Structure formats: structure tokens, C-alpha cells
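# nightly structure sweep
# worker-07 picked up a monomer target from the shared queue
# config: single-sequence mode, recycle default, output format = C-alpha cells
# input follows
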Amino acid sequence: MRKSTLAAVSAAVWVALAGCTVGPDFVRPATQSPAAWRIDYPMAAEVANTPWWEQFGDPVLNQLIETALRDNLDVRVAAARIDQFLGALTTTDSQAYPQLGYGAGAARTRASREGQPPIPEPAGNYFSLYQASLNASWQVDLFGRVRRLSEAAQAQVYASQQGQRGVVLTLVTGVAASYIALRALDRQLEIARSTAANFGETARIFDLRFKRGLVSQTEVTQVRSQYQQALTAIPTFEQQIAALENQISILLGRDPAPIPRGKTIDELAAPLIPAGLPSDLLQRRPDILAAEQNLVAANASIGVARSLYYPSLSLTGALGSTSTSFGNFLTGPATTWSVVAGLTGPIFTFGAIEGQVRSAEAQKAQAELVYRQTVLGAFRDTNNALIGTQKSIEGVEYQRGRVRALREFARLSRLKFEAGLVGYLEVLVADNELFAAELAFVNLQANRYAQAINVYQAMGGGWVDVADARTPRPVGMAGGQRTP
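# output follows
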């Protein structure tokens, strides 16, 4: 009765010790979220969870994004990184369980007759040795060191998954923004070529008029200068278009090549602005979620370091057979076994463990500051994008009115010049201002779409998961391996 009571008490003590986990448990840092955005858009929240790029209404853009999600190299790198941390998590978790192994060997040995002790005649100095064994070892996780290691490794897997979501977010918005910029350059090149053609025709007419003495050399020079100015803009736009096509090609995971076109920038439809409270960013922004998981890992590392202060218990065992005769191998008399329990712990380390704990605590402090900074940056980005969207819409409308006014100004100036009421200088000024205003209007159109894209990038949302589902899966996840 006494022995059974002692065994029960011992078992209870070991269970209690095994349930101990040193180090602080993770608590998400408190952050102050603004009650609302500086500019509020009363749109449907579901918009944030849909493939917003399809709202542009351009099938070519949709196909480019699908290709990028499938073939982009950065996405593949991110998927491989998830597999890396999944493997590390599996390795870490394995430390919580007994490790089993085996061994076998056969040897043939010739012993020296002149050695110590010498082998007398007529005993043979040749002999064989056969061995086989099963072994087991278990590092008992008394104070939660392995559990904290597993917690940190799992957080790194979460962080890597958020890292992939961040890559997807950047990729989709990058392809969309680059395509919009490409269509804007196409339109500006079209304007430059059309303007150059008109100015070229005007220059030809002025040459004929000069030969007939109807206009002065000064006016001919002014027209030629205007024509050359328009021609100068064409190579610049062509170079920018080629560079942007090369950039999009890289995003698609391809060699630099021409990019197909769909709708013109005037035909595109701006996507709706998603709704959401500032606090929503804490649950859906990949960079915030990744920063939080990095903080979880750093917090768990404190427990790993503190566990070094406490003793560790290891259990090892072996069962085997050893014989010099193969006929007696694996028989009862040849059986060998051993069971060993070892308890080790520190006494004086002269600050070695203390230094590791301080280092882990400092890393956690850094991770917490990074998390807070990431949250603040997310609020800033979203406010900037929302304000930018509203102001860019206003800017487009103002510039549209300016282009209309300058077109009328240019038309009236030309009529006055043909009637002999003004010199060509007024026409020149009107045409040049119209040319610049038309190019600026295209820039503002592109910026208006870019600001809408920035809102989706800044707010994150379920659309990232929609896009992420179209990317290659990490090998570990595709193979059914456990994920956190």
C-alpha cells in the first residue's frame, strides 16, 4: 500500500512538472485605432472581399493578373519559404516525443598473440561479433522548453503565410497599377503623335504661305519649333512604354516582351471603394499579421531561454543482442538491455543564461515596437489612399474642364489668326497649352485609378485570400502536411 501510494504521488508530481511552461504567455499589445477614417466612403464592405481588378472591365488585365499569380517568381519563393518553416515546425514538434532507433553490425577480428593479455595456444585468435539493438531516448519537457520552441516555430509558419499574402497583395496591385500606367502612356503617345501630325501639316501650310509672301519668317520658325516640340515627346513616351512592358513581363515571370492591350484608359471603369473600420486592418493586413506572429515567436523565445535555468530530465533505453557466434545470436543468453535516467541542471553559469534571457527580452521589445509601427503605418497608408482617391477624382474633373476650355481657346485663336486679327503667337500659346493640358489630364486619370488601387492595397481584405487561392500551393500544404 505504501509503495502504491508513493508511486501515485510520484506520478502526480511528474504530471504537474510536465504541465509547467516557463516564460510569459503572449498577449497582443494594445493599440489605439482611430474611430473612423478621415474620409469615409459609404460603400459595401463585401467589395473588399472580391477580385476588385475585375471591376475595371478589361479582360486583358484580368488575364495578366491570373498569369502573374500563377507564374510570378516572388510568389513561388514565398511558397517555398512556407515549406521551409513547416519543416522547421515538424522538426521542433518531434522533440516532444521519444526518439526510436536501431543498430546492427557484424565484425570479424584477428587478435594479437603478443598483446595484453596474450592469447595462448591452441586458442584461436580469430573471432566474430554480431550485434543488434533497439534504442529509445526521450527528453522530458518538464518546464515547457519544447512547447515554447514549438510555439515560436508555429508563429514563424503563420508569419511566412502572411508573407506570401503580402507578396500576393503587392503583386496584384503592382500588375494593375503598371497596366494602368501603360495604358496612360499609350494614350499620351497617341496624343503626341496626333499633335505632331497636326503641327506638321500646319508647318507645311506655313511654308507654302511663306513662299507666297503671306506669312513672315518668324511665324514659320514658330510653327517649326512647335512641330519639333511635339516630335520630341514621342521617343520619350516610346522609351517609357518599353520599360513598363519589361517591368510587367518580369511580374508575369517572363522574359521582357510586348504586353497585350485591352481597353483604353478612357474606357476603363474605376473600382468601387471598399468600406471598413480602422480596427479591421488588425485582422486583414498581411504585414500587421506577420508582425504580430513575429512578436509571438519572440515572446516564446523568452520561455525557451528561461527554461535553461531549470533541470532537464532525459530517459534512454536500449534492448539488443550480442554474440560471438551467429548460431547463438538473438537467443536469450545473448540479450542485453539498459535503462538510464539522467537529471542535469545549471549551478553557476556566470551570466550565460541571464545573457540569453536578456537578449530574448530585447528581441521581444523590438518585435513589439515593429508591430506598433506597422499598425501606425497601415493607418497612415489607408488614410492617404482614401484622401488621394477623393482628391484625384476632383482633380480629374477640374482638368477635364480645363482641357475643354483650352480646346475652345485654341479654336477661337486660330479663327482670329485666319481673320488677320492676331498674330500666330496667340495660336502657338493656345496649342501648346492644350497639348500640355491633354497630357496632364491623362496623368490625372491614371492617378485616379492608382489611388483606388492604393486603397485596396492599404486596406487588405478578403480579396487577398481570393487571389492567394490562385497561386501555387506550398509543397508541404499540397501534400497534406499539418499546418498551423
